[in-house]
Design a protein that fits this description.
- There is one protein chain.
- The chain is an all-alpha fold.
- Helix content is 75%, strand content 0%.
């Protein structure tokens, strides 16, 4: 016969909260990733727009 382990109530509540709000949490996480990607993309676009002065490179 196997004995069931007693799970602490606090741990069970935390697990239930995570399982219940999984879709909402996943959506928030994806939004954070998307905003990060957009910020990086904007920064790269700004860098691509800048022109390099070719005369500066000829000095070396």
């Amino acid at each position: 016969m196997s004995k069931k382990k007693k799970i602490p109530i606090l741990k069970k509540k935390k697990h239930d909260k995570i399982v219940k709000d999984f879709d909402k949490t996943k959506q928030r996480h994806l939004e954070k990733l998307a905003t990060k990607m957009l910020k990086k993309d904007e920064a790269f676009q700004k860098l691509k727009e800048k022109k390099i002065n070719n005369k500066f490179l000829d000095l070396f």
